[in-house]
Amino acid sequence: MRVLAYVYTGWHPTAERDGAFHPGFTEWELVRACRPRFDGHAQPRVPLLGEYDDRDPSSVAQRLRLAHEHGIDGFVFGVFWCRGKRVFESGLDTGFLGGPCGATSPFACMWANRLPRRVLPVRRSDVEVIDATRRVSSDVDDFVRFVAMLAEHYFWRDNYITIEGRSYLSIYDSSFFVRELGIDGTREAILAARDYLREHGYPDLHLAAIEPNAETLPLVAPLGFDSVTHYVHLPDWRGAPLQDYRERAQISSAQWPMFASVSGLPYMPSVATGWDASPRGADFGEARPDKYPWSPVIVGDEPEHFRVALARAIDHAARIDIDEPTVFVASLNEWSEGHYLEPDERFGMGMLEAVRAAR
After folding, report:
1. Kind of pairing, strands 85-87 and 227-229?
2. The whole model's pTM is what?
3. Which regions of the chain are under pLDDT 50?
4. List of E strands, 211-325
5. Which of 140, 275, 289, 316 is packed most tightly, with the most Cβ within 10 A?
6. How far apart are CA 342 and CA 356, in angstroms?
């Protein structure tokens, strides 16, 4: 049994955001500036260990060691790729692999197949959630190039995470990937990527579909995926503006068997510590748009409730008929979306201690 935490690598400046904002901009400015929008709203979130640059190996090592000490077995880093262009790669390549944990801490990759927003907080309600500047187009050749890049940079490492001997890779928006390539193109791309790995002496893939929609879910097995999981599986995205953590966690966990039965694949659950993307969207007051990043806010997101949800996921995963059953946690450090294990001024080490207690 493994518990892996997702890692967002966007905590350092980039040329794209320097141009859109000002030199040196990071999302810490959003986190710091957010203010309460209703009575009891837990904003701003303040990191107990301070803000950091995730290109700094010593800072990364401090946070990863803390997570390891509390029961996190490894980490799944988001990788942004769009036809050869990468964004935020320094958080993984320099901050993690360039530091003291880089050769020993188990890690894997998730393809975040959309580009980060250049303008934050979002100030226009008419902007599409995935606008043209964020769309990540792909095709068979591009997917093979992407997998080849991962193999050459990461899959060969002794601490890269495998399931049944195959390198773990997940696709964040699996439904978009299938729509973009089509049924035949998706199947061809996955087969071609596996062929590339075999021909070049790399292990095969264990390819996970993240959050396939109702149309895609029955297709993932014949398309060549190996498992199903989620990133954040907690809010009712079209539901009430405020939603209770315990209620939503119970509803989400009740759906886990359905994801397995409809897909015909192992379902490995993901448990979020909470959800509040308020820092990423301007305050519209009562005229709050009904879409991301003005998504519902999860309230009651306390460490004990997270512990219960995580223990439930661990119990579920223990019954999966697969070597190395895995539970995911969203996330180590998504501060601007309100789901993170890292200590804050509200709960201290509470979320990390909840992981230890659930194990």
Report:
1. unpaired
2. 0.96
3. none
4. 227-229, 242-244, 270-272, 297-299
5. 275
6. 14
